[in-house]
From TrEMBL, chains A, B:
Name of the molecule in the record: FAD/FMN-containing dehydrogenase
Keyword Flavoprotein: yes
Organism: Frateuria terrea
Record-linked InterPro entries: FAD-bd_oxidored_4_C (IPR004113), FAD-bd_PCMH (IPR016166), FAD-bd_PCMH-like_sf (IPR036318), FAD-bd_PCMH_sub2 (IPR016169), FAD-linked_Oxase-like_C (IPR016164), FAD-oxidored/transferase_4 (IPR051264), Oxid_FAD_bind_N (IPR006094), Vanillyl_alc_oxidase_C-sub2 (IPR016171)
Lineage: Bacteria, Pseudomonadati, Pseudomonadota, Gammaproteobacteria, Lysobacterales
Any single Pfam family the record assigns to this protein: FAD-oxidase_C
Length: 461, 461
């Protein structure tokens, strides 16, 4: 059965690169979640949109489930192939197709890494401003699938803001050129927007037209130590009103401990429960003066106990490593991850409630928090005790996540800020989206993918 | 039949304000297009979302078509009720519901005017940056329906960028709270984005959470006279690279003639075929210096023949009136309007082709152009000769629009940049969207509005 399906695929798409070795199946069958055993049927590595379209048409006829696959750095299981799916990897479709200086558009294939996009933009003296730690491995197609956010959202918004056009093979096999790079286009439903954040369940993104912008002005990076949680919000309010923020990230002392143990350098003497890495425009002396005044005001108010300003790029990189190194430093411990969002105004009340909840729910576990205060986005990583079996740990975390989801629902938040729903959060989708919304989403999915071949089981049960 | 349906509606929604007088039917049955005779069944003026929901449910059961209605300033016939529909006017739902300074969100009912939103934002020391001439009459619900653009898109983007949440009664009668003001939310399809630009065919927008931003820095306004069409693109490139543009609008000598005849003041001596109103940040002396240098360079290159810089707010308003007064000055002549978009880089070749096409197609008619070069958006208004019957004029214009649509298709443009498709452009939708896209759009429509009661005949035939 399996062999006849693959033989049929090979016959239809002559020259298609297809991997079936066990090591390849394992490599391409999982993402960074590591919770599901990879078990794909095979791995297809198409070289162009026509091959992708042929694969999708074959999958419709033969009823084969497909898992669109980019850099597999996802944290929601969206790119896991654990049930005999064909992995459709965009890895070989990684070229820059064009650049237009007048439109300031970079046209790329979906399998290009975020880092390569940054480099290509820089070559043209411009900036693609979406950025986060996985930049070297994650791909634009995957960024589109989850509407990736990251560390510059407070200034530049999420991936959605930077997509001027998408080339997509819909689940029904049709090749779509959505919006084609236009600034203004009020001619019917914006299916480009619908595709962004749809986690590979409506279509396979094969290409994108990315907006570029002017490079950011020179920035200064500051590390702050804060004595308590409420100070986080106060300092954010103070800094936002005085400085042009490019980033405002926070993490806890527990996060700091892990990242220091993983090789980062201590940059501040104070030992406090909360830390902030802030980056802001520093074009002129008066900008630096404004930052100093804001810092001093924070100290006077008792919100800041210590701080350091990077004196050069190397120091700035060292401060950033304290924040950006957290995920990597925790990875060996296989943490359970929550990625939640609230309105910024809802955060203080929610933070207090959540802190009490987590203390009760995880008395013997380490809980590592960090995130993006300016976007209302918190990452909560729970580390398993050394002596607890993974299944027991996961079951316990799932019970707590239900409580967290209930709290989020009360506070009007979201169970996924930027990781997506995938497999990991699908049981909690109903905490963020109403039954009526989910019914409409299922209906839309059926329109795009009538046979349900694209990423089945992801997003919806 | 009619009476029994309305009696049923009144019984179900006690207290619903319902208008049935002929003058009201005429007033609420048409928009600024004036091409279709208004003939609604009646006009409902609900006072809250619950009443809207009850009306939509009644319409589903009784198979009554609804026309969602805001300020009816639309130019595509999207709010025309010419076939016995019930007009569902949001006029009474025009309140500001709340403001949050931390989130910088203004929560409003959909029937509030754009001008009232500007005022409310200003009261809080902030800015809602979407702006255009119809601000005093158009409503936020209508702005969302067409993803309204206007004169600040080059700086601030379209309405889409400023919607943090939408409250919608879907065509199936469900009340949806879409995105609820979150900055980040990767939990399934972004139905808020799908709703924006859907022209009242998927749901009735009853409320919105609008993002506000810092007020724009002080600006300077400049009027330029340009000797030929290619100079438009050159001057745009020059100004964009040197100044922080807030707006870059152009119009022709024919447009100028009409707006002067309509009471605007001549502000420049030169008589040239093209004019530009540019607005740019002027925070400091060096900004004004940069503008002067750019102007001088444009003159040296032969792209600019004359120019004037506003010395105060009254002069700036007078310059702006030359551009913003065009639509009003043409209205008595009932022009045929095209509102097209291209990639900016595609404009020079398209402009030459279009100019030849229009000269051939409209030899005896006045053609008035203006628009937003920085967004790739051209408005083309054709004025009927005094002695031509309207039907003949329209038939002729429709034939030319087909040629224009074909040219747009070749150049990768859109038949509607910001007016929407409505009734006016639905025959040309296939020039901008592929058959596969239109089929998906129809499918999505059926999911949201299974009985096809919302704005039938708009957008699709």
């Amino acid at each position: 059965m399996t062999e006849s399906r693959l033989a049929d695929l090979t016959a239809r798409v002559p020259g298609l690169r297809l991997l079936t070795e066990l090591t390849d199946l394992i490599h391409y069958g999982r993402d960074w979640t590591r919770r599901w055993g990879p078990a794909p049927l095979a791995v297809a590595l198409p070289s162009d949109a026509a091959e992708v379209q042929a694969i999708v048409r074959w999958a419709n006829e033969r009823q084969v489930a497909l898992v669109p696959s980019g850099g597999r750095t996802g944290l929601s299981g969206g790119a896991v192939a654990a049930r005999g799916e064909l992995v459709l990897s965009l890895q070989r479709m990684n070229r820059v197709l064009g650049f237009d200086a007048t439109d300031r558009l970079l046209e790329v294939e979906a399998g290009i890494t975020l880092h390569a996009v940054h480099e290509a933009a820089r070559e043209h003296g411009l900036l693609y401003p979406v950025d986060f730690g996985a930049r070297g491995s994650c791909t634009i197609g995957g960024n589109v699938a989850t509407n990736a956010g990251g560390i510059r959202v407070v200034r530049h918004g999420t991936t959605r803001e930077w997509i001027a056009g998408l080339t997509v093979v819909a689940g029904n096999g049709e090749l779509l050129e959505l919006n084609r790079g236009l600034v203004k286009n009020s001619s019917g439903y914006d299916l480009r927007q619908l595709m962004i954040g749809s986690e590979g369940t409506l279509g396979v993104v094969v290409g994108a037209q990315l907006k570029l912008t002017d490079p950011s002005p020179p920035a200064q990076t500051m590390l702050l130590a804060l004595p308590h949680m409420d100070a986080l919000m106060e300092v954010f309010g103070l800094f936002r009103s005085r400085l042009k923020l490019q980033a405002f990230e926070f993490f806890t002392d527990v996060a700091l401990k892990h990242v220091l143990a993983h090789g980062a350098q201590r940059a501040i003497d104070a030992s406090e429960p909360y830390y902030v890495v802030a980056e802001y425009d520093a074009l002129e002396d008066r900008d630096e003066q404004a930052a100093l005044l804001a810092f001093e005001e924070g100290v006077r108010e008792g919100w800041i106990s210590d701080g350091v300003i990077a004196q050069n790029e190397a120091q700035a990189a060292a401060l950033w490593r304290l924040r950006e190194g957290i995920t990597e430093s925790l990875a060996p411990r296989k943490p359970y991850k929550n990625d939640i969002a609230l309105r910024i105004s809802a955060m203080p009340a929610f933070l207090h409630e959540m802190q009490a909840l987590l203390a009760r729910a995880y008395p013997q576990m380490e809980v590592v928090w960090f995130g993006h205060i300016g976007d209302g986005n918190l990452h909560i990583n729970v580390l398993p005790p050394e002596d607890m079996a993974q299944a027991e740990f996961l079951a316990h975390c799932e019970r707590v996540t239900r409580l967290l989801a209930d709290a989020l629902q009360r506070h009007g938040g979201s169970i996924s800020a930027e990781h997506g729903i995938g497999l990991v959060k699908r049981a909690y989708l109903d905490s963020t989206r109403s039954a009526a919304e989910i019914a409409l989403m299922r209906g839309v999915r059926t329109v795009f993918d009538p046979h349900g071949i694209l990423n089945p089981g992801k997003l919806f049960e």
